[in-house]
Amino acid sequence: MxxxxxxxxxxxxxWAFVAVMIxxxxxxxxxxxxxxxxxxxxxQNKHTQxxxxxxxxxxxxxxxxxxIGDPAYTQPFSGEYWQIxxxxxxxxxxxxxxxxxxxxxxxxxxxxxxxxxxxxTGEDLRGVAQWxxxxxxxxxxxxxxxxxxxxxxxRDALRNSLLLxxxxxxxxxxxxxxxxxxxxxxxxxDLRRDVLQRWDSxxxxxxxxxxxxVAPLVSDINTLLERNREIVVRSRRQAADLAHAIxxxxxxxxxxxxxxxxxKMPVAESLVALDRLDAHLKRSLARMRADGGNAGMRPAAxxxxxxxxxxxxxxxxxxxxxxxxxxxxxxxxxxxxxxxDFEEVMGNLLDNAIKWAAGQIHLKARTKxxxxxxxxADDGPxxxxxxxxxxxxxGQRLDTSKPGTGLxxxxxxxxxxxxxxxxxxxxxxxLGGLEVRVVLPALDA
Length: 445
Known about the structure:
The chain is of the alpha+beta class. The protein has helices at 4-56, 64-68, 149-198, 215-262, 268-296, 303-320, 339-356, 388-391, 408-418, and strands spanning 80-85, 91-93, 113-118, 124-133, 139-147, 301-302, 324-329, 334-335, 360-368, 371-378, 422-427, 434-441.
């Protein structure tokens, strides 16, 4: 099952990533183009500066460098260079070129030539070159070049700044999306809480209390819950009617068989079969009741009351058989189970324990996290580990030396599972006999 929150966040993150990549690429292209244009404009200004210096010092070209006055042209390989060629083919260069030269002039070119190239030293340069005519009619070639490294460095710094800025935007965008999804999905969380509370009362949900997009769903849930409650009530009524219809004929048959038994008639097997029939019916009706109750309401059992009542009854029963039942129940325990069904489970377990115990039975109840564990242990012969599974299956009597139907553990197991619980069998470390542990969901306070 895919979470709406996960789907929304995943879609938002993917869309944000695509948008950021498009934005970074677009801005990088735009700003890089602007940086290149500014670089070229600055380069052309430097070219104009050299032309002015040449016009002022054409009679003595050696004075051109002093006429420019930019200290970058005096530092060796500073990244700023100029080169001038006179009509006779003599070349004058800035001191920064040392003994290197820029590309020679092509006499067939006219106008301003703007290009990128590699110098003799392998440095990436961008230059402006032009043939110019001075006032005396002489034709000179003026060329200015600047290193591209500064442009590359500026572009890299710009790209890193863009990535950091858009990365921060992505983080804030994801956090904003998470907050937005939480706010948008809050009505669904409220609906889930209200539906859970709905089990405890007959009041319907109020569609007007939810956004208009959720209100139709709320109305449908109200309809389904009401129909479900009607079905559960009808099923439980039918189960009660069935139990009542069977109880009277069963009692009549039992009375007749007991009369025949007192007359020394061989009806022992019939009585055993009737006991098993009653137990099977009891088990089936218990399962119907548990399933119906669990589907139609939010049941609760107070263990202080339920186990207290059972402890008093079975202590007296154990004492009558010269046995001792000790009780260790943590106070305030509550479970999500119908109290009558819980008492039926524990009644079966305590009845079995007293039946098979040599002299000691121990009842214990504790809570851990969202579960409550109730255990019943005895000092009887126990059950072999390989028979633990068979003991909770229908009609598995592992020992026929004592009366019974073999359905007590099966009924308890059915009821526990109907409420989301489990029953496990083990050897008791304390008493040495069988220990049965019932784990059931704790009821929220």
